[in-house]
Amino acid sequence: MDWLPLLSTLAGAAIGVGSTVVADRNRWKREDAKDGRRLRLDVYTQYTTTVKVLGETLRALAERGHPSDEERALALREAFRDSGIGVASERMWLIAPQPVVKACDGVFHCLRRICEGYADGTAVSSPEDRARWEARGVAAARMRRLMREDLGVGPLTERHSRLLDDRGNPAAP
Q1: What's the CATH architecture for 36-151?
Q2: Rounded distance, CA 76 to CA 70, Å?
Q3: What distance in Å separates the CA atoms of residue 106 and residue 133, rounded to the nearest whole number?
Q4: One digit per residue, pLDDT tens: the chain, 173 residues?
Q5: What are the sequence ranges of the domains in the chain?
Q6: 24-45 as b/e: b if 16+ CB within 10 A
Q7: According to the 3-state scheme, what is the secondary structure of the chain?
């Protein structure tokens, strides 16, 4: 019996099966990477949206009249707690790479300082308030830059929100 045709057929089958397995594994890796990127985009979007809405809410509450300083502080702290920033932050801690987590944590703490400043009676647009908001803006710009790098998106050439002058108006570029 001639073994050469049988061995050739078996070798061809092994090569075919092997290349199919390698191709499937590569396709799975690409899909897995795409799914991971999509998940991080969702988590990043939730976090940045929560940060934006929370900041606007804190400023609006601080500008609003309250019957007492205690009620103002209670309303601000309740808005912070109910904003969803805790859930968004925990999702970030579970999904994002460490540099992004650290940057997000920096933004979280900036918002916490803004909230506590307002709760302690800091006036909106006071020098202390502007300094806290500027720190939040710098931290948020760093956070977004790291998120964009992680997602493989090119850098932005402009700052998301402009610096403020001493009167609280956007500064000239």
Answers
A1: Up-down Bundle (1.20)
A2: 10
A3: 13
A4: 687 777 777 777 778 777 777 776 777 777 767 889 999 999 999 999 999 999 999 999 999 988 999 999 999 999 999 999 999 999 999 999 999 999 999 999 999 999 999 999 999 999 999 999 999 999 999 999 999 999 998 887 765 555 555 555 555 54
A5: 36-151
A6: eeeeeeeeeeeeeeeebeebbe
A7: CCCHHHHHHHHHHHHHHHHHHHHHHHHHHHHHHHHHHHHHHHHHHHHHHHHHHHHHHHHHHHHCCCCCHHHHHHHHHHHHHHCCHHHHHHHHHHHCCHHHHHHHHHHHHHHHHHHHHHHCCCCCCCHHHHHHHHHHHHHHHHHHHHHHHHHCCCCCCCCCCCCECCCCCECCC
Q: Which two tokens stand for residue 53?
A: 């809405």
Model confidence, pTM: 0.76
Pick from 54, 33, 36, 55: which is nearest to 44 by CA? 36
